[in-house]
Amino acid sequence: MKKILLLTVILSTWGITSIAQQVDTTNIYKDRTDSLKATVFTGRSRSNYLSKAKDLRTEVTSAAGLMKMACCNLAESFENSASVTVGYSDATTGARQIRLLGLSGAYTQMLDENRPVMRGITAPYGLSYTPGPWLESIQVGKGSPSVVNGTESITGSINLEHRKPTDGKPLFLNASVMNDTKTDFNVASSLQVSDNLYTVLMGHVDGNFKTYDMNGDGFADEPALFQVNAANRWLWYTPAVQVRWGVRFIADRRQGGQMSGPWKSDVNNNVANAYFKIGHSLKDDGASSIALVGDYTLQKTGSSFGANLFDATEHSVFANFIFRDQFSESHDLTAGINTTVDYVAEDITGGGQVLKGNHQTLSQVAPYAEYTFRNGETLSMIAGFSGTILPGKGFYPAPRLTFKYQPSESVVLRANGGRGVRFSQPVADNIGILSTGKRIIGDLTDRPVEDAWTYGGNATLYFGDSGYLSLDYFQSDFSSALLLDREAPDQILFYSLDGHRAYSRNIQADISFEPLRKLTLTLTGRYTDAKAWQPSGAVRELPLTSRYKAVLNAQYTIGANRWILDFTASMNGSARVYDFMRELKDEDGHLLYPEGRTPSYPLIYAQVTRRFRGFDVYIGGENLTGSMQMHPVIGADNPFSDTFDAASIWGPIMGAKFYAGFRMTIWK
Question: What integer pLDDT is reported at residue 156 of this predicted model?
Fold first, then answer.
């Protein structure tokens, strides 16, 4: 039994969990064996919380938190978070983008149980390809995470924990419908095939039957959507060896643009993924182990945005060999090598550029080592180093260091810093530029390396099991990056920093407590100062990046959790608009942005859930304040001009929405 438990702890570092326990497998940094019970208990009792066990500052949304809203997909699960801000990349495709530490989601590493995902040509739509009902939890880690999963993370990582093959749920169903005809259906089934073999099947279908033009500009506020998403995951288990593997297929089509005019957007994405994980114990007590992780993804996109075209195919392979040896309770070494190879073939027509038959192979090899020292529960130190080799670009040493000090049961202090490097993706990282008529200046086939250091710290005071008070500060400093200058009305300029300055500073405070029995209140505030050098010579505030966000979430349960009432209110601060937007006027001739900034706006979400035995019914509403960006499409009356712009989005495109749904679970 001791061997099985220790193997579980060791292999959980790479997303491999045991049959007996549903242990948190994210391990942005490795959990201690003495923290497993606390981690499971906290996850069940709180829907959103800051993990006490994690060495990195980690915000956890549990399965209960994912049920606070309709949570049709991953993007909508962040609506009650101040750490992660979600917005639209444009007003025609429905593509969503996140910001962490005030920077684009391209700088946040997305992980599926510690496998890098949502990379490449379909990344702009990836947030809608992860159904909320498929997930057990989401972990948002700020700062520089472990080198084990590569060095593409700059601002942090978001790890997704899916339903496990060992869940005692042979059938789970979830369905919801919104007043705008958006409909979702999800199914999951975990089955035990034999004594050692387990599987989970997951399916998802969503779409809408009708589109709307609520602001009267002639463009559909959201595209017509239809998505089919299916996954099958397996686990083969023995006390010494665990093997996980799975496949997934996605077909997605979205059609938007003018309701009755010639300018249309049509996006067709298809994704196929297969992966495996093998873990084997090298010692009888499980203190030493090896693991091999492999992942292959095929992505195809065929997209048109008015007269702009983007057709591409991408093959991506990720492999990671991991060796771990726990010398003692205080000393732990993990070492290995990971590699990523991306082969991209693309055709681009738009912005004055015609690029046909462009083929590129981008690869990176990263040997790494990570040493962990622990002095009981009081002190931990994790020192990691990755020597990332980018063929044709050079060698990038990427050190990362994390400290955690817990002087008492109620106080946790953390500090973290490290380097991140990644290949830029001019089109995929900035898909909205194709929803404009502007001339694009710059080489869309060039993928320069982006290089930044992120560092910061966190202090958290816990009030027993009922709440916490937390304060953190993080800063990212770039030494190289590929940026966009969109200040002019008729052109978009890609440019490199060339040694100039770009940074983001973030301060966030969180407090969560229970003023009354069964009432939980969480209040979060975040301030962002993000600036970058521009070719004009000035270091300016990043456009369309709100300076602050405040979120209040309240949850109240009645009876034995038979009724659950959820309420979330947020205030989103103003952002600097592009220079050309300062001259925009409304129908009455008044300037839309007289001070060169967007207005602040509130958002309110509410949901009521009635729970029965194995069956939940819920109703709710989103954006109940009706906040909207009333002129999201610039130049809507002349969409084929060089000043047309449907990609300068800073707020909600649609008004209030209402939904109803149910969840049904059959237990073993």
Answer: 94
